[in-house]
C-alpha cells in the first residue's frame, strides 16, 4: 500500500545519484511510515475495498465515533447533500466520518485530493480533485455534479489538509471554496460536522518548523489514535435557499461556513439559518401491514393501489406521510422546516394514499375532510382552510356539501409518472362511493421559490379568469397589488380571451424558467366555464411564505371527459 521507493523517486529525485544517503533515508521512511504494518494489513485483507475496507481499518485501530442521537437525524437518509467537516487528524477522522454517514446512507462519496487515489481500496468511495485549485479535469468535476444530481451525498474537507495549531487552537487552515460551488450549482443543502480530535503535541511542534516533515508524521500519528473514540457534532441543514440568497462574495461566504462549523463545538448560535432534517422513513414491513388495513378504493392500470386512511394514535402511516410531505415540499422550495410535516388537522381528516406494492412506498397522498361532519363536531376551527381564509358567511352555503382538499404531494422520484392523475382517480373513487359531495375546495399553493414576477402573473391571471365576483372567503393574509403593479400586469393580457392569455402566461413563465403549477392547470381544466373559482389569494407564513389560492370546484359542472375519466 505504501511504496517507499516510489515516495523517494517522486519527492526526493536528487537522492538517486547519492546511494550513501538514499539507503538510510529509505530505511527511516520505512520506519516512519509503518511500511511493514501496512504490508501485513494488505496481505491479510487484499479482497477488501470501499466501506468494508474502511470498517476493517477502524477495527484494526480499535477506533470508533460517537454522536448525539438527536444530531444523527440531521443527516438525511435520502436526497442530495454536501457534508463539510474539519480535518483534525488527517487520517482516521476521515474514515470515521465515512463510517458515520454510511451507517445512515450508502450513497456517499468523498471529494479528495487526487493524490489520495493512490489508496486503491478506497476508490469506490472517492471523487478526486486537484485540491479544488481550479485545475481538476472536467470529467472529475462532472462526476461530482452527477453524484449530486442523482440525489446522493458527498463529503468535503474544505481545508484539503490536516488541521494545525493556530492562535485560536487546533484549526483548519484556509478553506477552499470548491464545496460551495458544488453545492450551489446543484442547489444542495449543506451539513456541517465538527470533529473533536487532535494529534500529538510533537506533531504540532514539528508543524511550526516544517509542514512537509509534519505531514510525514501523519502515519505515526494515526497509530497513536488506537483505542480512541472520535466525538462528532452534527449541525442542522443549511438549505440552498438561505446560503444562496446571501449577497456576499464566495470567499466571504466560505469563511462564514468555517465559522459556522467551529461554533458547533461549543453549541453557539448558528451563523446561517438552518432547518431540521427530515425524519427517516418507516420500516417497510410494518408500513405495508398498516397500509393493507386501510380502506381499499381501487387500483391503477400499472398496479398501484389507492387506499383511504384515518389517523390513529402512534400512527406509522401518518409518520411516513409527514416525512414524505416535507421531503416533497422542500424539493419545490416550500415545506414546514420540521422533521415531519404534520399538524393538528391530520388527526380528523381523511388521507388518500397511492401505494406502490413493488417498492413498498407511499407514492403520494391527498388530505381531505367531510366539511359538514367536522363543522358539526368542531365548528369552523376544525377546518384547515379556515385557518388561512375566513369561511364564515356566504361560504357556508358551499360547506354543507363540501369536501376540503389539500396537502397533496407526490414523491419527487415519482414525478412525471402520472402519479398525481392517479390520486385524482382515487378522489373520484371516493366521491362515487360517498356521493353526497357537490363542491371541492381548498388551498392550492404557489411556491415561494418562484420569481416574484412569476407569482404576480399567476395571481393576476387566475383572479382575472377564475376570480369570484364576491370575495366570500377572504384570506387572513391577502396578496395585494398596488395600482402601478396592476397596470403593469394588465399590459400582458387582452383580458377577454382565455386561450390567448393562457398561452401568453405560459410563455411569460417559461422565459423565467418556471411553469404553471400543476394543480392550478388541473383545477382550471376540470369543469365547464363557471365551474371553478379561485376566491382569494393569501400568503402562508407557516409554509415558507408560499401563496395559497382558495379554489372552489362545482362537481356538477365537470366536463364530460373528466366525468368519464374520474367518476365513470
UniProtKB/TrEMBL annotation:
Keywords: Acyltransferase, Lipid biosynthesis, Lipid metabolism, Transferase
InterPro entries hit by this protein: ACT14924-like_Acyltransf_dom, Acyl_CoA_acyltransferase, Ornithine_N-alpha-AT, Plipid/glycerol_acylTrfase
Known pathway: Lipid metabolism
EC number(s) from the headed UniProt entry: 2.3.2.30
A biological process term (GO) from this entry: lipid metabolic process
Domain Phospholipid/glycerol acyltransferase: 81-198
Keyword Lipid metabolism: yes
Superkingdom to which the source organism belongs: Bacteria
Entries under Pfam families matching the protein: Acetyltransf_5 (PF13444), Acyltransf_2 (PF19576)
Function: Catalyzes the first step in the biosynthesis of ornithine lipids, which are phosphorus-free membrane lipids. Catalyzes the 3-hydroxyacyl-acyl carrier protein-dependent acylation of ornithine to form lyso-ornithine lipid (LOL).
Protein name: L-ornithine N(alpha)-acyltransferase
Source organism phylogeny: Bacteria, Pseudomonadati, Pseudomonadota, Gammaproteobacteria, Alteromonadales
Amino acid at each position: 500500500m505504501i511504496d517507499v521507493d516510489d515516495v523517494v523517486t517522486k519527492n526526493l529525485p536528487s537522492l538517486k545519484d547519492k546511494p550513501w544517503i538514499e539507503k538510510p533515508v529509505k530505511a527511516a521512511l520505512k520506519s516512519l511510515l509503518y511500511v511493514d504494518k501496512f504490508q501485513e494489513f494488505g496481505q491479510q485483507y487484499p479482497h477488501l475495498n470501499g466501506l468494508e475496507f474502511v470498517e476493517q481499518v477502524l477495527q484494526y485501530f480499535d477506533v470508533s465515533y460517537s454522536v448525539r442521537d438527536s444530531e444523527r437525524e440531521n443527516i438525511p437518509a435520502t436526497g442530495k447533500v454536501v457534508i463539510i467537516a474539519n480535518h483534525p487528524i488527517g487520517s482516521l477522522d476521515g474514515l470515521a466520518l465515512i463510517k458515520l454517514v454510511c451507517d445512515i446512507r450508502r450513497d456517499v462519496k468523498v471529494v479528495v485530493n487526487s493524490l489520495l487515489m493512490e489508496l486503491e481500496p478506497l476508490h469506490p468511495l472517492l471523487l478526486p480533485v486537484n485540491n479544488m485549485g481550479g485545475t481538476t479535469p472536467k470529467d472529475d468535476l462532472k462526476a461530482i455534479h452527477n453524484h449530486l444530481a442523482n440525489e446522493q451525498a458527498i463529503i468535503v474537507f474544505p481545508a484539503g489538509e490536516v488541521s494545525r495549531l493556530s492562535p485560536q487552537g487546533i484549526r483548519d487552515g484556509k478553506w477552499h471554496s470548491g464545496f460551495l460551488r458544488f453545492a450551489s450549482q446543484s442547489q444542495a443543502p449543506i451539513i456541517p460536522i465538527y470533529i473533536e480530535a487532535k494529534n500529538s503535541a510533537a506533531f504540532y511542534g514539528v508543524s511550526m518548523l516544517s509542514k512537509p516533515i509534519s505531514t510525514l508524521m501523519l502515519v505515526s500519528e494515526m497509530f497513536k489514535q488506537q483505542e480512541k473514540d472520535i466525538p462528532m457534532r452534527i449541525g442542522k441543514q443549511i438549505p440552498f435557499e438561505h446560503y444562496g440568497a446571501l449577497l456576499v462574495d464566495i470567499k466571504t461566504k466560505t469563511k462564514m461556513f468555517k465559522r459556522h462549523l467551529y461554533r458547533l463545538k461549543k453549541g453557539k448560535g448558528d451563523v446561517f439559518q438552518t432547518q431540521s432534517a427530515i425524519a427517516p422513513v418507516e420500516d417497510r414491513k410494518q408500513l405495508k401491514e398498516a397500509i393493507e388495513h386501510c380502506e381499499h378504493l381501487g387500483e391503477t392500470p400499472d398496479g398501484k393501489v389507492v387506499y383511504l386512511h384515518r389517523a390513529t394514535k402512534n400512527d406509522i402511516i401518518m409518520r411516513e406521510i409527514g416525512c414524505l410531505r416535507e421531503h416533497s415540499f422542500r424539493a419545490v422550495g416550500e415545506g414546514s422546516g420540521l422533521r415531519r410535516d404534520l399538524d393538528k388537522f391530520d388527526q380528523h381528516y381523511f388521507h388518500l394514499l397511492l401505494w406502490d406494492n413493488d417498492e413498498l412506498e407511499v407514492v403520494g397522498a391527498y388530505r381531505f375532510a367531510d366539511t359538514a361532519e367536522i363543522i358539526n363536531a368542531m365548528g369552523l376551527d376544525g377546518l384547515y382552510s379556515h385557518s388561512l381564509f375566513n369561511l364564515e358567511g356566504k361560504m357556508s352555503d358551499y360547506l354543507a356539501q363540501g369536501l376540503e382538499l389539500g396537502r397533496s404531494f407526490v414523491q419527487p422520484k415519482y414525478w412525471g409518472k402520472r402519479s398525481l392523475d392517479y390520486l385524482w382517480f382515487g378522489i373520484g373513487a371516493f366521491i362515487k362511493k360517498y356521493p353526497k359531495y357537490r363542491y371541492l375546495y381548498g388551498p392550492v399553493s404557489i411556491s415561494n421559490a418562484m420569481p416574484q414576477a412569476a407569482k404576480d402573473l399567476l395571481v393576476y391571471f387566475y383572479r382575472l379568469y377564475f376570480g369570484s365576483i364576491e370575495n366570500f372567503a377572504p384570506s387572513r393574509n391577502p396578496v395585494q397589488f398596488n395600482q402601478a403593479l396592476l397596470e403593469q400586469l394588465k399590459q400582458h393580457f387582452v383580458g377577454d380571451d382565455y386561450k390567448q392569455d393562457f398561452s401568453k402566461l405560459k410563455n411569460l413563465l417559461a422565459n423565467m424558467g418556471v411553469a404553471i403549477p400543476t394543480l392550478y392547470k388541473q383545477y382550471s381544466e376540470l369543469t365547464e366555464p363557471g365551474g371553478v373559482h379561485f376566491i382569494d389569494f393569501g400568503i402562508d407564513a407557516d409554509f415558507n411564505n408560499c401563496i395559497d389560492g382558495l379554489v372552489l370546484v362545482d362537481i356538477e359542472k365537470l366536463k364530460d371527459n373528466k366525468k368519464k375519466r374520474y367518476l365513470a
